[in-house]
Write a structure and sequence with these properties.
homodimer; mainly alpha; Arc Repressor Mutant, subunit A; Tetracycline Repressor, domain 2; 2 domains; 71% helix; elongated
């Protein structure tokens, strides 16, 4: 019988090898040759799955997005109180452990690679902002958002807080560790949530 | 008489050529050869001023920092009310026009280049956070900061808001234009400043 190869799993393995190469050698080191070596596959096999370098990077990037999205969907299906549910979703967007720090590094490396290559990156980046709008709406629907706040400004501000913390945790991890990041996020949530409402 | 060359000006010209190359071709395109061509100097002349590629990039980066710092010092010497002075300083850290957007792109390109090259970048990046701490202290000294706030958390949060806005304005300029960025920054300042105090 022919050997059965799970194509989807093989592609994921190559994507994960791509992440490891980006983390250790930067986006510049993420050549097809280095990725094939890291994944333990031949150049020919790699080209069978991904016909261009760009296609491979986009796949690796989308896998990060899919995994984050899957974790967020799981959280939204729990019975957590709304305020805690929102906090948990936002924590998924922050690099709070080695795994999510690696995802964050791949994400930023990729975003800047596209930016400096002059590629239009809306499809890759814009996924987060609509989610943040939903979270602000969700707090508002549960009467947790302070009534005097402008939802549009608050979505933009929350998005800045989350990505600003993520960026600084990546660049200055000695000061901004996971515990400190979570504390600042909660200070922000407290400041936009009505204290009179049940959490 | 020999031609008098202003070395400092020549170095600044080469640094500005470096910025233009980074903006148009990304950090990858910022080779010594491309920079010399953009600056209109020979490779030999460029090497006379900068013995290594890294030295050139660090100089270009530091020139961004010096110019931003000079603008901030100017603002701190004005007679603006404290709240407006703080807002003006923070605006210098945001890409509100083409010039500051270019500086921001150079800054981020450089930071990520160092990060992916595994270089320790504290000396280049940490300049901003101490400034943010000073601004929070300054608001507090003028009894503008809301008394119930924790200054340490607020410095970290303000830093995240500012860099998060800067990052998003660079990556998603169609949504986050200059006017919107300024509005969100002011929403944030209003939220941490006591409304009972004179501004």
């Amino acid at each position: 019988m022919p050997k059965i190869v799970d194509h989807s799993e093989r592609k994921s393995n190559i994507a994960e090898a791509t992440w490891r190469v980006i983390i250790h050698q930067g986006i510049k080191g993420a050549t097809v040759r280095n990725i094939a070596a890291e994944a333990g596959v031949s150049l020919g096999a790699l080209r069978h799955y991904f016909s261009t370098h760009h296609e491979l990077l986009v796949f690796a990037m989308n896998l990060v997005k899919e995994r984050v999205t899957a974790r967020i969907v799981d959280i939204m299906q729990t019975d957590l109180p709304p305020r805690e549910q929102v906090a948990s979703v936002l924590l998924e967007l922050l690099p709070t452990d080695d795994g999510s720090m690696a995802e964050m590094e791949v994400w930023f490396a990729f975003i800047f690679h596209l930016k400096s290559a002059g590629e239009h990156n809306d499809e890759h980046h814009d996924a987060i902002y609509p989610l943040i709008i939903q979270l602000i709406d969700y707090l508002d629907q549960h009467e947790l958002l302070r009534q005097e706040l402008d939802k549009d400004s608050e979505a933009e501000r929350l998005y800045a807080v989350v990505d600003g913390l993520a960026l600084h945790a990546m660049l200055e991890p000695e000061r901004l560790n996971s515990q400190r990041m979570i504390r600042v996020l909660n200070v922000h949530l407290d400041s936009i949530c009505s204290s009179a409402q049940p959490q």
